[in-house]
Amino acid sequence: MPLLRDPALADDGARKIEFAHRRMPVLAGLTERWAAEKPLRGARIAACLHVTTETANLCRALVAGGAEVALCASNPLSTKDDVAAAIQRDLGAEVFAVRGCDRETYYQQVKGALDIEPTLIVDDGADLTATVHEQRPELLPAIIGGTEITSTGVIRMRNMAADAALRYPVLPTNDALTKHLFDNRYGTGQNTIDGILRATNILLAGATVVVAGYGWCGRGVAARARGMGADVVVTEVDPVRALEAKLDGLRVLPMHRAAAEADVVITTTGNRDVVTVEHMRLMKDGALIGNSGHFDLEIAVDDLTSTATSRRYLRDNCVEYTLPEGHRILLLAEGRLLGQAAAEAHPAEVMDMTFATQALAVRYLVERAGELEPAVHPIPKEIENEVAVAKLAAYDITIDELTPRQHEYLTSWQFGT
To answer: Of 123, 210, 295, 353, whose CA is between 20 and 30 Å from 258?
Structure first.
């Protein structure tokens, strides 16, 4: 049985899904073709994703392709309950997703999706993958492969492969250029700033914003904060990325120094304990802390809760903690994925490319069932190119093509000075 907040919310969700659908032309075109071709006929897909309007349109494509789909939430605060109800009612997927659920219910949702006895896994954060390997190993022989959409999940799956624990091939959607160059940079950049503003309504112009991590997500957040007039400071553990931030015109400091200057701290690292209570003790009274990484481990929330002398709800997704020294720290969205929990998730225009890449990766696994070894395999270049070409066409953009003479030059070594 599906697990929903309220099936009566479906009408609201359906309108929002249609609004996103209009802004996802690549995925819409794929859906139309697949409705005739049925390339996924017979596949059973368990998907663990943020339950948003964009995800709804991915479900539409997969079902149109002939797959049976069960969807569960990949984060307790990213589910849109009206969208979940509309997917269940209108789009042919069974949904297990309730916003704001506790940990026990979260994993009840994951297990509900696995009850479909999947042949394919579509994951965001690798919770579904880890659960099927650790708790439902009897399902593994039927699974021909999986995909993973986020940086944190790809790290987990590569670690599983290194430990010889991964039992089926995985395509890391996050590594595709058509995903991370756009989704991570422009999507995370925009919705993180959106989440900060919805949760606090602060003025970013003139504020010191510390961005922990300068990968593609960190780049996006830093660029948008800077564009709104903030003084942006980057913290990093990677020397090359730190140099990139410096040459991009940003200040680079270790966290213990950056924390003392911060009005806002945003974590985008995919690692844990990036902001500790020791860092918080150095911060200004009223400093804001938020996380744009997938899991709620980047900020030491449990330590903050146990150390604080009081806790006070200020606004939606904004809770004030008072430390023993007397100064206050404002935690956004419980330290969870800020752009999903406090804002509207990634814009449909970038998720169009991400989910088209994801859908084509699923088709690739179906077409090559039994051919790929259990490992993390790169997304084929032809999938990236197919998505990019379709997106350019949607923007009515044409580009140059190599002449035969240029192609000959680029594929030879004889031409020199």
So the answer is: 295
Q: Which residues of the chain have pLDDT under 70?
A: none
Q: Are residues 283 and 172 in the same domain?
A: no
Residue 295 confidence (pLDDT): 84
Q: Is 412 annotated as a binding residue?
A: no
Q: Is 296 annotated as a binding residue?
A: no
* pLDDT at res. 177: 95
d(CA 97, CA 51): 7
The reply to whether 277 and 361 lie within a common domain is no
pTM, two decimal places: 0.91
124 appears as a binding residue in the annotation = yes
183 is in an annotated binding site: yes
Contact 357, 148 (CB under 8 A): no
Say if residue 102 carries a ligand binding annotation: no
Does 214 appear as a known binding residue?
A: yes
218 is known to lie in a ligand binding site? yes
- The reply, when asked if residue 151 is annotated as ligand binding, is yes
b/e map of 52-71 (b: 16 or more CB within 10 Å)?
A: bbbbbbbbbbbbbbbbbbbb
Condensed to tens digits (0 to 9), the pLDDT of residues 64-88 reads 999 999 999 998 889 999 999 999 9
Domain shared by 309 and 384, yes or no: no
Annotated binding-site residue? 385? no
Cα-based angle 227, 329, 261 (whole degrees, multiple of 5): 50
Determine if residue 179 is labeled as part of a ligand binding site.
Answer: yes
The CATH number that applies at residue 379 is: 3.40.50.1480
Q: Is 220 within any annotated ligand binding site? A: yes
- Residue 360 φ/ψ, nearest 5 degrees: -70, -30
* 227 in a known ligand binding site: no
For residue 415, what pLDDT is reported? 86
